[in-house]
Amino acid sequence: MPAHISQELADLARLARDGGLDLSQVSLRVTADLLMSTPLPPQGDLAAFAEMALALIPRIDEATAVILARKLAGWPHSPPPVLAALADRGGAVLAELVRHGMPLSPTEIEQFAELGDAPTRVALAARTDLTGTAVLMLISLGSRSLDLALIGNPRAPLPRAAVEMLIGRARTDPAYQPGLLARDDLSNLERAPLFLRAGAERRLAILDSLMAREALHPGERLPLVPNATFQGWLAVAGEDRDGAFGAIAAHLGSGSGLAHAIARDPSRELAALSLIASGVSVEEATRFLIRLGDEAAHSVERIFALVALMRMVKPAVAFRLVMQIVGMSGAPSQRQGRHQPAMDPSGTPARTGSARPEAQPAMSEMLGRIGPRRERG
After folding, report:
1. HSE-CB of 291 using CA atoms within 13 angstroms
2. Separation CA 271–CA 4 (nearest Å)
3. Within 13 Å and on the Cβ side, how many CA atoms surround 277?
């Protein structure tokens, strides 16, 4: 007899001797353990066990019923009437059956998703045979515990609508982000809103996907921020960060959502991406980030990491990425759709702003120029 069964029998015997256990419950659990230790139990033994279980299950205590449910739920030889009798008790017993693999049809799974109580739904979210419809039903409830259980279940299918809802919640609840990034059934474009939490390899894959999307479906070009406007941002960056972030968000056609998101990001990566999306050069963007005077500005390592990030993205891709991160439309609102010829200088108005240099200066040279300016400003 397996060691764990022997230990359980010893515990049950001790309780029986002390008068703390109904022997009918002991008999039911012992019989179940003996049957389950047999590779192919005889049909006669299964029938006898079913008869005894159906008589006792309505009377046994909750703890014993939960133990039986856990044992019998996924056992291939469990008599269906016994499982049904346990399920009729509902509550924790039913939740254990659902969690541990009680056979359910797709229709039954969806009925539990729609009508089940909270413990049963959480148990359902851990199953490997969920349907897409059941997943949508569970996610539509807006329950954080259900969402996290589904995200952590790699066999749970995530329809597109479910992914959109989960990504939307992940923007405001960081607990969602690691699990969504770890799933292998999400595309890199779907992961783009989670860019700030992604590792280096995942970031490169997300940027590659965004660049490919931009190449196939170019977005409308944003106007470069005028130099005078940028100088205004720079002037207030050290004294009124929120005001500076609000001005950047306004230039990108966003409202307070982007400004608040930039302010909440202590890494300043969202601020850096927003500056590049506005057409600011890497050097000028670095000046802005240093002028903020916050924790990131005082870390040489962080500034170098921000410079590396800004050099990886073009303005159009940065704009797409920023809008994905904050959950807003990727269409810039400033442009009116008026055609401006790119090749005929006679018909193209002069455009002010900071042009991106073809070759970036060395970091030490750039910081050398930034330092004195900051002291003057």
Report:
1. 28
2. 58
3. 28
